[in-house]
Fold each of these.
Amino acid sequence: MKIHIINPNSTASMTDKIAAAARGIASPGTQIIATNPSGTPASIEGFADEAVSVPPLLDEIRNGTEAGADAFVVACFDDPGLNACREVTDRPVIGICEAAMMTASILAARFSVVTTLPRAIPIIEDLADHYGMGRRCRRVRSAEIPVLALEDEGDAAAQKVRAEVLKSVAEDGAEAVILGCAGMADLAAALTEEAGVPVIDGVIAATKMAEALAGLGLKTSKAGAYAFPRQK
Ligand code: 5HY
């Protein structure tokens, strides 16, 4: 099967990191294709970046459908344009925020999220409410790092993420912690070990969900909200 993972920002090194994380857990026989549009923001930090990333993201979904993808992952923790993506293809489309929150809610009664900049906190809090996870989400924390700091040499950014993950457990009563940025995909295993609770990366969770849905042969329903856009 072919899982197409799309990084909506235009930073290729982040796309490569996302692809490596997905390929590390993909089943034998699953081909991971990872792409990013050109011309979108280098990182998505807030509403305006999110808005301009959606039209090129939809083109990636259309092209991927033509190329035979069995399912898609939108690899940005804002889940930008997720419902719109579901309109333009009949393949399953999974957002990494939704996948991470669903996974955390199966493994734990309460979870916290650690994201990058403070401006992402209300966006993720609203997504938790949107996905019916408001009560389960104890807190959304910021490591106070720009998204692209995760691409820098060294581990300064990772150490800031680590500190907030440990605080989530110690202070929030979090029984699981979600990494709230696709660029954190490479940190989950080590942090799970150290924190003593599941530390969930949305790229990995979404990739396995995509495999499951594609494996079941299930497609996005075109019976209503996700019907193809009408020709005008
Ligand atoms: C992401 N931004 O996953 C989000 C997360 C964030 O470019 N990829 C981005 O921190 O806003």
Note: The chain has eight helices and eight strands.
Amino acid sequence: MAEPALDLTQKPIYPTIEFEQFQGVGLSSQRTRDRLISRLMTLGVHDAEVLKVMRVVPRHLFVDEAMAGQSYEDTALPVGYGQTISQPWVVAIMTSWIRAGRPLHKVLDIGTGSGYQAAILSLLADQVFSVERIAPLQIRAQQVLKKLGLNNIEFDISDGHWGWQQKAPFDAILCAAAPDKLPESLLEQLNEGGRLVLPIGKEVQVLKGYEKTSTGVKESFLGEVMFVPLKTGVEV
Ligand code: SAH
């Protein structure tokens, strides 16, 4: 069945969340966000729920004010501490892949960073668990997410290589930093039918998807990407 066309004129789908006051003007206006959504659609993003959510989340609030004007370009941007907010197309592809058209209950977000990916997930899942190794980054992300009223997210400062054992199993795990090889503990923390997406590699990175089935793990190659490395240990 063909995906229904996305009606870009419709109001935000989450009326309980007062995003309108954060909409921004000029280069961070709704019109600018809509242009980004149109671009994602032409790049082959078809998950209408993901597009709707990305249409309403004010990405400009997750970057430094000086960069707000670039926040709806399809590029990664620096967020301090040598880290970046991922490129919108990459966020859309990863989120669509783990969603696989189904409602999500529990999701693990590895690498909170700016908190933008966590915001997108929080509107698509009942509960989001977000881990980060750089404490000041996560504190800033928490402040923005709180301001937006997104309160179904739990945070932890830890090394994402280990997932979040106490909160497992997850329907989906999304990791926004690249390990050299697949951390096996992440697969262990998935439900049956659960999906993991992450970049793997050093100079050359590939975006990989893993689906846990009753008989094993199905692996998908989703493209070549460029992410910051998944480092070891935490920085406080
Ligand atoms: N999802 C973020 C992307 C941030 S970039 C966003 O939407 O902005 C990746 C993040 O992963 C960085 O903040 C980096 O500090 C974090 N990171 C790197 N290695 C990590 C590890 N081992 N455990 C947890 N977070 C890690």
Note: Residues 75-225 form a domain with the Rossmann fold fold (CATH 3.40.50.150).
Amino acid sequence: MIKIEKLRKNFKDNEVLKSISLEIEKGEVISIIGPSGSGKTTLLRCLNLLEIPTSGILGVGDVQVDFRGKAPSKQQKRSIQKFSGMVFQHFHLFPHLAVLENIIEAPMVVQKRKKAEVVEEAEILLQKVGLIEHKDHYPDQLSGGQKQRAAIARMLSLKPEVLLFDEPTSALDPELVGEVLTVIKELSEEGQTMIIVTHEMGFARDVSDRVIFIADGFIVEQGKPSELFTAPKEERTKQFLQKVLVR
Ligand code: ADP
Ligand code: MG
């Protein structure tokens, strides 16, 4: 459902993604791991065109864009962006809107759907992430874990085909990490296709069908978690895994 071929992304002279090729099937749960600055966030942002790749081919659903020297059309951009939903490290909730309002905003404004119907769905999503009793609270009245669960509900309200998580727990106090990972794990068990950039190695091992190790803008190695975490083939992967705690 997603296919990228020889994708490159430069920021001026800095080549951040150096020919990434990758295919993701419907229902797959992929974890992306790798050192800070290796291009993980940039890769996720290229998948939903928050960044425009410098060259290469991106196929998302039935839309395919070849970036050689040209920008995607408005229509291509719209369908690619509709296809995926992103959850950010720092939540990005609207601070002036209560939790429920945060969730209904995009379905009402972007999708022009009826308020009653959207509210009903939002309440179901809030039940699911365990926040229904906080629906009228504002983001600054919530803990980090609650904010991230609200951000997940908001992302789900647009019913994306693929969920993109960019280090969803790295801004959280340690005791709040578990509640967010539990929600993500439940989504994976429902068969949601997802790509998760994470430093939580135990979680990656637990939920992923495939783990991708990225360093310096390359895919160094990828494989099943049981293989990659226990018997990495590449020296780079071994070094990285020795430094991070796999618990
Ligand atoms: P990671 O998520 O793996 O830590 P990033 O994708 O955020 O890595 O960043 C990879 C490299 O791209 C870094 O060197 C970073 O400074 C650079 N970079 C990321 N976003 C931008 C940007 N908008 N403008 C210029 N450089 C950027
Ligand atoms: Mg990042």
Note: The longest helix spans residues 174-189.
